[in-house]
Amino acid sequence: MKGLKRITGLVVFAVVLTVASSTSVSAQGILADILKRMDDNNKALKSLKSDLKMSTYNPQINETDTKDGMVQYLPAPTKEKISIRIDWSKPLVEHLAVVNGKYIMYRPHISQAIVGSISDSKGAGNAGGALAFISMNRAQLKANYDVTYIGEATVNGSTKTWQLKLTPKNAGSYREAELWVDSNGMPVQAKVVEKNKNVTTIQLTGVQRNATIPREVFSIKPPGGTKIVQG
Q: What is the pTM of this model?
C-alpha cells in the first residue's frame, strides 16, 4: 500500500539518529573522530525538532516525489520506545506518528487514517530494511554493516559535513545508506538506496536539539467520520 510507504520518512530519520548512538565500528583517523562525535552528540540528545525535506526517486519511471514538513523526535534504545511525529505541509497535509511500537498516518484531505504496528510493517514497501537499524545493538551493527568515510560535502548550500557510507554485510531490502554528519556529530542528511534502486533522501534544517516536546504531541486523534484502515 502506497500509504504505508510514507512510514519510510520516520524510519529513515530514526536510522540517522540510531546509527549515531550504535556505531562502534573500529576505524582510524577521520572516521574514528566522526563516529566519536556522533556518539557524543547522540548521548547528549534528549529530543529533536527540525524542518524536514524528503525526496523519493523512482528510476523505473524517472520521477521524484518531494515532501516538506516538520519532525519531532524523542530517542529511545529500541523501536518499541521511540516517539516520532512528522507533519507534512507540502504537497499535501498529512500527519504521521510512531509511538510505543504503533503508527498512525492521518490524511485529512481524504478523511482517512492508516494504523498498524511497526513490527508488522516489514512488508510495507521499503520500510523493512530501514527498520533493521533501529532494533540493532552495537555488536549487531558492527557485525552487519561496513562503515566507510567518503569525504567532505556541503549540505543545503552552506552546512559543511562529513559523508559516510553504510553497506550491509548481509542481504537486506536495501543496497546501501549514506549519512552526512556536521561538525557537532549531528546527522543532517541521510540517503537509502533500495534493492529496486529507489532512492530516499531526508534532509534536516533548522535543527533544535533538546527542545521541550510534550508527550501528547505524539498522539494523533482523527475527527469523527474518519475512515480507519488497518495497515
A: 0.80
pLDDT per residue as tens digits for the range 114-146: 999 877 654 333 333 333 443 344 455 566 678
Confirm if 213 and 72 have CB atoms less than 8 A apart: yes
Of 107, 112, 104, 80, the C-alpha closest to 7 is 104
Q: How many CB atoms lie within 10 A of CB 36?
A: 14
Contact 47, 211 (CB under 8 A): yes
3-class DSSP assignment, residue 66: strand
Tell me the CATH number of domain 2-230, given options 3.30.70.100, 2.50.20.10, 2.40.50.140, 2.40.160.50: 2.50.20.10
pLDDT digits (tens, 9 = 90+) for 65-99: 999 999 898 887 666 678 889 999 999 999 999 88
What residue spans define the domains of the chain?
2-230
